[in-house]
Amino acid sequence: QVQLVESGGGLVQPGGSLRLSCAASGSISRFNAMGWYRPAPGKQRELVARVTSGGGTNYADSVKGRFTISTDNAKNTVYLQMNSLKPEDTAVYYCNARATRILQYDYWGQGTQVTVSS
Q1: Percentage of the chain modeled with pLDDT above 70
Q2: Cα–Cα distance, 88 to 75 (Å, whole number)
Q3: What does the alpha-carbon distance between residue 110 and residue 99 come to, in Å, rounded to a whole number?
Q4: Helices in 53-107 by DSSP H: which ranges?
């Protein structure tokens, strides 16, 4: 029922910028939170950025000041603006939508590849 489609990944030079998009097949207001994740050494995945219902945001320490998450409810889309990209940002970035009713349920997109290299 719920589909998340990421786009915007690609190859960028260090110091460059990319904007990732996550388009949902319905209103994103249904979700308690939406965020972006990437694999991390020794972990299944790392929270990169998250926006919660009410507009609160959370960022990984490694991206604070460089990445910004935002939403466009009219377009059912969540964005991740990535500035000052570093080679260590290279990863597949996955969009997550979290729904909480009786039990928590996470929806995931297919991922979009970001490669930061000269």
Answers
A1: 100
A2: 31
A3: 18
A4: none
Both tokens assigned to 15:
């110091």
> What's the pLDDT score for residue 43?
81
User: How many C-beta atoms surround the C-beta of residue 50 within 10 A?
Assistant: 19
Tokens of 115: 């490669």
Six-digit token string for 85: 């990209």
| Positions of E strands within 9-111 | 10-12, 18-24, 33-40, 43-52, 57-59, 67-72, 77-82, 91-100, 104-108
Amino acid 44: pLDDT: 86
Q: Any residues with CB less than 8 A from the CB of 41 and at least 6 apart, and which? A: none
pLDDT tens-digit profile of 17-44? 999 999 999 999 999 999 999 998 788 8
